[in-house]
Amino acid sequence: MTITQLQYVLAVAEHRNFTLAAEKSFVTQPTLSMQVQKLEDELDILIFDRSKKPIALTEVGKKIVAQAKNIVAEAGRIKDIVDQDKGFIGGDFTLGIIPTVMPTLLPMFLSTFIKKYPKVNLIIKEQATDTLIANLQDGHLDAAIAATPLEVDTIKERPLYYEPFVGYIPPNHRLNKKKEITTADLDIADVLLLQDGHCFRDGVINLCKSPKNKVTEHFQIESGSFETLINLSNEGMGMTLLPYLNTLELDGLKKQNLRHFESPSPAREISLIYHKSELKIQITEALKDTISGIVRGAIAFQDVQIISPVTKKE
Predict the structure, then answer these.
(1) Fewer CB within 10 Å, N or C, the chain?
(2) What secondary structure, in 3-state letters, does 7-47 show?
C-alpha cells in the first residue's frame, strides 16, 4: 500500500470516473487503474463498484476512503514539519474567498502578500461558504476567508476583522431623515437582499429577526452584486444593507445615503478558516498577519455585535 495509491483512490472517489480522476492526477488512465486494482488485490476487497454508472463506492470502500483522507493529510504534514523547521514559507497555497468579501479585501492585501512572500504560489478561488467548507474538508483548499462563526467541528476559525453593516437608504425612504438607524427600524419586507446562497443575505435576515423560510419578497434578485442592490434602492425599490468595506469606494452622492447603526453596530466576523489538521500552517499564519495588519487601518470599529451567517432554524 502506498500514499500514491491512496491518492488515486481519493481521486476516483471524488470524480466517480477513472479517466477524469487520471486527468486530475496528471497520470494516464491505465496507470491509475492499475494502481487502484493492485490496492484492491492486496486488500482482497473491491473499493469501487464498476458496474454502476457513475462508479460508486462499495460499503467497505466508503470506510477506506474516509481513512485514506486522514492518511494522505497526515503524510502531507511531514513536508510541513520540514518546511517549518527550515523557516520556509513557499509552495502552492489554495485560498478560497466568499463572493461578498473577495472584491473589497483581495485588492487590499494581495500585492503586499506577494511581495513579502514571493515563494508562495497563491491560488485564489471565489466560492460560496458551503463549497468552501466542503473543499476544506476534502483537502482541495488550504484555507479560506469567510463570515463566521460557522460551527463546523473540523474547521478552525481565526478572526481577521469585524465588519459593520451599513444601511443604504435613498432620499425617498422613510428612514432617510434619521442620522443613525437601529435594528428595530428594519422591516425585512423593505430590505433588498442578495440571492440565496450568500451568507451576507443570511446575516441580514438573522439581523432582522425573521426566519428565512418565512420571508416573502416582492421580486426575486438573481444577482450577487451589491451594486445592483444600490441601483434598485435608488429606483425606489427599498433600502439595502452593505458591508462597511463596500461603502468606501462609493461616490459622494451615494455616500450621502449611508446610515450607520447606533452602537453597538451589528457586524459580521470575517475569519481565516482552515482544517484542524493545520497543513501549511506557516503560510496560513503569514496570511493572517498580513491581512490583519492591513485591515486594522481600514476598520477602526470596536463596539460591535456579531451577527451569525448561519441560517437560523425554527
Answers:
(1) C
(2) HHHHHHHHHCCHHHHHHHHCCCHHHHHHHHHHHHHHHCCCC
